[in-house]
Amino acid sequence: MDGNGRWATRRGLPRETGHRAGAGAVRRVAEAAYRLGIGTLTLFAFSGDNWRRPAREVNHLLALFEDYLRSAKDECVEHGIRLGVIGRRDRFPESLRAAAESAEVATSGGTAMRLRIALDYSGRAAILRAARRLRENGAVTVEAFSQLLAEVTSADGAAADVDLLIRTGGEKRLSDFMLWECAYAEMIFTDRMWPDFEASDLQAALEEFQVRERRFGRIPTEGDHGCAALLSPAATPAAVAPAPVIPRADHE
Ligand code: FPP
Protein backbone atom coordinates (compact mmCIF):
# COMPACT_ATOMS: atom_id res chain seq x y z
CA MET A 1 0.00 0.00 0.00
CA ASP A 2 2.55 2.55 -1.17
CA GLY A 3 2.06 6.21 -1.79
CA ASN A 4 0.37 7.57 1.35
CA GLY A 5 3.31 9.82 2.16
CA ARG A 6 3.66 11.21 -1.36
CA TRP A 7 -0.10 11.61 -1.69
CA ALA A 8 -0.04 13.89 1.36
CA THR A 9 3.19 15.74 0.56
CA ARG A 10 1.90 16.66 -2.90
CA ARG A 11 -1.07 18.29 -1.22
CA GLY A 12 1.08 20.14 1.29
CA LEU A 13 -0.22 17.91 4.08
CA PRO A 14 1.65 15.95 6.75
CA ARG A 15 2.43 12.31 5.92
CA GLU A 16 0.10 11.21 8.70
CA THR A 17 -2.83 12.65 6.74
CA GLY A 18 -1.80 10.42 3.86
CA HIS A 19 -1.87 7.36 6.11
CA ARG A 20 -5.35 8.32 7.32
CA ALA A 21 -6.49 8.59 3.72
CA GLY A 22 -4.80 5.22 3.15
CA ALA A 23 -6.93 3.72 5.92
CA GLY A 24 -9.98 4.89 3.95
CA ALA A 25 -8.67 3.03 0.91
CA VAL A 26 -8.21 -0.10 3.06
CA ARG A 27 -11.93 -0.04 3.88
CA ARG A 28 -12.94 0.58 0.26
CA VAL A 29 -10.69 -2.10 -1.16
CA ALA A 30 -11.60 -4.70 1.48
CA GLU A 31 -15.27 -4.14 0.77
CA ALA A 32 -14.66 -4.37 -2.99
CA ALA A 33 -12.68 -7.58 -2.57
CA TYR A 34 -15.52 -9.07 -0.57
CA ARG A 35 -18.09 -8.08 -3.20
CA LEU A 36 -15.89 -9.47 -5.97
CA GLY A 37 -15.64 -12.83 -4.24
CA ILE A 38 -11.91 -12.83 -3.47
CA GLY A 39 -10.96 -15.65 -1.10
CA THR A 40 -7.99 -14.06 0.66
CA LEU A 41 -6.87 -10.44 0.66
CA THR A 42 -3.58 -9.67 2.39
CA LEU A 43 -2.65 -6.01 2.84
CA PHE A 44 0.98 -5.14 3.53
CA ALA A 45 0.60 -2.31 6.03
CA PHE A 46 3.86 -2.30 8.00
CA SER A 47 7.12 -4.10 7.26
CA GLY A 48 9.73 -5.14 9.76
CA ASP A 49 11.87 -2.33 8.32
CA ASN A 50 9.20 0.35 8.80
CA TRP A 51 10.31 0.70 12.44
CA ARG A 52 13.11 2.81 10.98
CA ARG A 53 10.66 5.64 10.31
CA PRO A 54 10.37 8.59 12.69
CA ALA A 55 8.66 7.67 15.97
CA ARG A 56 5.84 10.13 15.33
CA GLU A 57 4.91 8.43 12.04
CA VAL A 58 5.27 4.93 13.50
CA ASN A 59 3.06 5.80 16.46
CA HIS A 60 0.46 7.29 14.17
CA LEU A 61 0.45 4.13 12.05
CA LEU A 62 0.18 1.84 15.09
CA ALA A 63 -2.79 3.85 16.31
CA LEU A 64 -4.42 3.60 12.85
CA PHE A 65 -3.96 -0.18 12.78
CA GLU A 66 -5.48 -0.54 16.23
CA ASP A 67 -8.37 1.71 15.34
CA TYR A 68 -9.00 -0.26 12.16
CA LEU A 69 -8.91 -3.66 13.88
CA ARG A 70 -11.34 -2.46 16.55
CA SER A 71 -13.72 -0.70 14.19
CA ALA A 72 -13.77 -3.28 11.37
CA LYS A 73 -14.39 -6.21 13.71
CA ASP A 74 -18.20 -6.02 13.89
CA GLU A 75 -18.60 -5.44 10.17
CA CYS A 76 -16.38 -8.46 9.49
CA VAL A 77 -18.45 -10.61 11.83
CA GLU A 78 -21.62 -9.44 10.12
CA HIS A 79 -20.33 -10.40 6.66
CA GLY A 80 -18.50 -13.58 7.60
CA ILE A 81 -15.05 -12.12 6.98
CA ARG A 82 -12.21 -13.64 8.95
CA LEU A 83 -9.93 -10.79 9.97
CA GLY A 84 -6.39 -11.52 11.07
CA VAL A 85 -2.88 -10.19 11.41
CA ILE A 86 0.27 -11.80 10.04
CA GLY A 87 3.77 -10.86 11.15
CA ARG A 88 5.42 -10.70 14.53
CA ARG A 89 3.53 -9.18 17.40
CA ASP A 90 6.01 -9.00 20.22
CA ARG A 91 7.05 -5.46 19.26
CA PHE A 92 3.47 -4.14 19.17
CA PRO A 93 2.10 -2.05 22.01
CA GLU A 94 -0.05 -4.24 24.24
CA SER A 95 -3.24 -2.49 23.13
CA LEU A 96 -2.58 -3.28 19.45
CA ARG A 97 -1.82 -6.91 20.30
CA ALA A 98 -5.10 -7.08 22.20
CA ALA A 99 -7.02 -5.49 19.31
CA ALA A 100 -5.56 -8.03 16.87
CA GLU A 101 -6.41 -10.97 19.13
CA SER A 102 -9.89 -9.68 19.79
CA ALA A 103 -10.58 -9.22 16.04
CA GLU A 104 -9.24 -12.70 15.32
CA VAL A 105 -11.31 -14.39 18.02
CA ALA A 106 -14.49 -12.52 17.09
CA THR A 107 -14.18 -13.24 13.36
CA SER A 108 -12.70 -16.76 13.54
CA GLY A 109 -15.86 -18.37 12.20
CA GLY A 110 -15.88 -16.26 9.02
CA THR A 111 -15.77 -18.21 5.78
CA ALA A 112 -16.75 -15.62 3.15
CA MET A 113 -13.29 -14.03 2.88
CA ARG A 114 -10.01 -13.87 4.72
CA LEU A 115 -8.75 -10.36 5.32
CA ARG A 116 -5.18 -10.35 6.57
CA ILE A 117 -3.24 -7.29 7.62
CA ALA A 118 0.53 -7.80 7.46
CA LEU A 119 2.03 -5.90 10.40
CA ASP A 120 5.68 -5.97 11.40
CA TYR A 121 5.92 -8.49 8.61
CA SER A 122 9.07 -9.84 6.93
CA GLY A 123 9.10 -12.60 4.34
CA ARG A 124 12.71 -13.45 5.11
CA ALA A 125 11.92 -13.69 8.81
CA ALA A 126 9.13 -16.17 8.04
CA ILE A 127 11.55 -18.40 6.14
CA LEU A 128 14.12 -18.15 8.93
CA ARG A 129 11.41 -19.07 11.44
CA ALA A 130 10.91 -22.32 9.55
CA ALA A 131 14.68 -22.91 9.58
CA ARG A 132 14.81 -22.36 13.34
CA ARG A 133 11.98 -24.84 13.87
CA LEU A 134 13.80 -27.32 11.69
CA ARG A 135 16.84 -27.09 13.93
CA GLU A 136 14.67 -27.51 17.04
CA ASN A 137 12.89 -30.52 15.50
CA GLY A 138 16.16 -32.27 14.82
CA ALA A 139 15.17 -33.93 11.51
CA VAL A 140 17.13 -31.74 9.10
CA THR A 141 15.81 -32.92 5.77
CA VAL A 142 14.59 -31.03 2.74
CA GLU A 143 11.14 -32.58 3.18
CA ALA A 144 10.97 -31.51 6.83
CA PHE A 145 12.03 -27.97 5.87
CA SER A 146 9.46 -27.83 3.10
CA GLN A 147 6.77 -29.02 5.52
CA LEU A 148 7.78 -26.42 8.12
CA LEU A 149 7.81 -23.68 5.50
CA ALA A 150 4.27 -24.62 4.53
CA GLU A 151 3.27 -24.48 8.20
CA VAL A 152 4.93 -21.14 8.80
CA THR A 153 3.65 -19.44 5.65
CA SER A 154 0.07 -20.58 6.14
CA ALA A 155 0.06 -20.53 9.92
CA ASP A 156 -3.42 -19.05 10.00
CA GLY A 157 -4.76 -21.75 7.72
CA ALA A 158 -4.94 -19.53 4.63
CA ALA A 159 -3.69 -20.91 1.33
CA ALA A 160 0.00 -20.14 1.07
CA ASP A 161 0.34 -19.34 -2.63
CA VAL A 162 -0.27 -15.77 -3.69
CA ASP A 163 -2.00 -15.57 -7.06
CA LEU A 164 -1.92 -11.84 -7.64
CA LEU A 165 0.27 -9.17 -6.12
CA ILE A 166 -0.68 -5.53 -6.72
CA ARG A 167 1.81 -2.84 -5.78
CA THR A 168 0.79 0.81 -5.80
CA GLY A 169 2.76 4.07 -5.74
CA GLY A 170 4.99 3.25 -8.73
CA GLU A 171 7.27 0.92 -6.74
CA LYS A 172 8.43 -2.20 -8.53
CA ARG A 173 9.92 -4.32 -5.79
CA LEU A 174 8.84 -7.15 -3.51
CA SER A 175 10.27 -5.44 -0.42
CA ASP A 176 10.39 -8.60 1.68
CA PHE A 177 6.71 -9.41 1.17
CA MET A 178 5.67 -13.08 1.15
CA LEU A 179 8.84 -14.16 -0.64
CA TRP A 180 8.05 -17.87 -0.56
CA GLU A 181 4.35 -17.47 -1.26
CA CYS A 182 4.90 -15.20 -4.28
CA ALA A 183 6.91 -17.82 -6.21
CA TYR A 184 4.28 -17.90 -8.97
CA ALA A 185 2.38 -14.71 -8.20
CA GLU A 186 1.26 -12.58 -11.09
CA MET A 187 2.34 -9.01 -10.43
CA ILE A 188 0.69 -5.75 -11.31
CA PHE A 189 2.44 -2.46 -10.65
CA THR A 190 0.50 0.75 -10.76
CA ASP A 191 1.50 4.40 -10.36
CA ARG A 192 -1.73 5.04 -8.48
CA MET A 193 -1.00 6.27 -4.93
CA TRP A 194 -2.65 3.99 -2.37
CA PRO A 195 -5.12 6.60 -1.01
CA ASP A 196 -6.42 7.00 -4.60
CA PHE A 197 -6.80 3.25 -5.18
CA GLU A 198 -10.43 2.51 -5.90
CA ALA A 199 -12.65 -0.54 -6.24
CA SER A 200 -12.44 -0.03 -10.02
CA ASP A 201 -8.63 -0.36 -9.84
CA LEU A 202 -9.00 -3.69 -8.07
CA GLN A 203 -11.55 -4.82 -10.62
CA ALA A 204 -9.23 -3.77 -13.48
CA ALA A 205 -6.32 -5.67 -11.89
CA LEU A 206 -8.45 -8.81 -11.58
CA GLU A 207 -9.49 -8.52 -15.19
CA GLU A 208 -5.85 -8.28 -16.22
CA PHE A 209 -5.02 -11.25 -13.98
CA GLN A 210 -7.69 -13.33 -15.63
CA VAL A 211 -6.18 -13.02 -19.08
CA ARG A 212 -2.62 -13.67 -17.92
CA GLU A 213 -1.28 -17.01 -19.04
CA ARG A 214 -0.03 -18.92 -16.00
CA ARG A 215 2.06 -21.84 -17.07
CA PHE A 216 3.81 -22.93 -13.87
CA GLY A 217 6.65 -24.18 -16.05
CA ARG A 218 4.37 -26.09 -18.40
CA ILE A 219 3.94 -25.59 -22.12
CA PRO A 220 0.41 -24.40 -22.75
CA THR A 221 -1.72 -26.95 -24.51
CA GLU A 222 -4.24 -26.06 -27.19
CA GLY A 223 -7.37 -24.65 -25.63
CA ASP A 224 -5.60 -23.10 -22.62
CA HIS A 225 -6.60 -19.47 -22.34
CA GLY A 226 -5.51 -17.17 -19.58
CA CYS A 227 -4.94 -17.96 -15.95
CA ALA A 228 -8.31 -19.60 -15.38
CA ALA A 229 -7.27 -22.53 -17.55
CA LEU A 230 -3.79 -22.75 -16.12
CA LEU A 231 -4.28 -22.52 -12.40
CA SER A 232 -1.85 -24.45 -10.31
CA PRO A 233 -3.25 -27.83 -9.40
CA ALA A 234 -2.10 -26.98 -5.88
CA ALA A 235 -4.12 -23.78 -5.77
CA THR A 236 -7.18 -24.07 -3.61
CA PRO A 237 -10.34 -22.15 -4.45
CA ALA A 238 -9.65 -19.84 -1.51
CA ALA A 239 -6.35 -18.76 -3.05
CA VAL A 240 -7.78 -18.05 -6.43
CA ALA A 241 -9.50 -14.86 -7.41
CA PRO A 242 -12.59 -16.04 -9.27
CA ALA A 243 -14.36 -14.10 -11.99
CA PRO A 244 -14.89 -10.60 -10.60
CA VAL A 245 -18.30 -10.15 -12.08
CA ILE A 246 -20.94 -11.23 -9.61
CA PRO A 247 -21.53 -8.58 -6.95
CA ARG A 248 -22.81 -9.92 -3.64
CA ALA A 249 -26.40 -8.83 -3.30
CA ASP A 250 -26.24 -8.52 0.47
CA HIS A 251 -23.51 -5.93 0.20
CA GLU A 252 -25.04 -3.59 -2.33
C1 FPP B 1 4.11 2.68 2.62
O1 FPP B 1 4.05 3.80 1.79
C2 FPP B 1 2.94 2.62 3.52
C3 FPP B 1 3.00 2.34 4.84
C4 FPP B 1 4.26 2.05 5.57
C5 FPP B 1 1.78 2.39 5.67
C6 FPP B 1 0.54 1.76 5.11
C7 FPP B 1 -0.56 2.14 6.01
C8 FPP B 1 -1.82 2.42 5.66
C9 FPP B 1 -2.36 2.23 4.29
C10 FPP B 1 -2.71 3.02 6.70
C11 FPP B 1 -3.80 2.22 7.24
C12 FPP B 1 -3.68 0.75 7.26
C13 FPP B 1 -4.58 -0.04 7.86
C14 FPP B 1 -4.43 -1.51 7.79
C15 FPP B 1 -5.73 0.48 8.60
P1 FPP B 1 4.25 5.30 2.24
O2 FPP B 1 3.02 5.82 2.77
O3 FPP B 1 5.41 5.37 3.08
O4 FPP B 1 4.36 6.07 0.93
P2 FPP B 1 5.48 6.92 0.27
O5 FPP B 1 6.23 5.91 -0.54
O6 FPP B 1 4.70 7.85 -0.57
O7 FPP B 1 6.32 7.64 1.27
Write the layout of secondary structure elements.
Elements: H1 4-9, H2 15-36, E1 40-47, H3 55-79, E2 81-86, H4 94-107, E3 113-121, H5 123-137, H6 142-153, E4 164-167, E5 186-189, H7 199-211, H8 226-229
Parallel strand pairs: 1-3, 2-3, 4-5
At the fold tier of CATH, the topology name is: Undecaprenyl pyrophosphate synthetase
- For the record, the count of structural domains works out to 1
Residue share in helix? 40-55%
CATH architecture descriptor? 3-Layer(aba) Sandwich
- β-strand number: 5
Give average pLDDT, whole number.
87
Radius of gyration: 18 Å
Placed side by side, the strands forming the largest sheet appear as 1-3-2
Unreliable residue stretches: 228-252
Indicate the overall shape.
Answer: globular
CATH class: Alpha Beta
Order of helices and strands: HHEHEHEHHEEHH
The structure class reads: alpha/beta
First-residue to last-residue Cα separation: 25 Å
Name the CATH homologous superfamily: Decaprenyl diphosphate synthase-like
Main sheet summary: 3 strands, parallel
Per DSSP, the total helix count is 8
Ligand inventory: farnesyl diphosphate
Instruction: Report strand %.
Output: 5-15%
Q: Please, could you describe this protein's structure?
A:
- The structure is a single chain.
- The chain contains eight helices and five strands.
- It is of the alpha/beta class and 252 residues long.
- It has one domain: Decaprenyl diphosphate synthase-like (Undecaprenyl pyrophosphate synthetase).
- The chain has a three-stranded parallel β-sheet, with helices on both faces. A two-stranded parallel sheet has the order 4-5.
- β2, α4 (94-107) and β3 (113-121) form a beta-alpha-beta unit.
- The longest helix is centred in the first third of the chain and has 25 residues, at 55-79.
- The two termini are 25 Å apart.
- Residues 228-252 have low confidence and may be disordered.
- Bound molecules: farnesyl diphosphate.
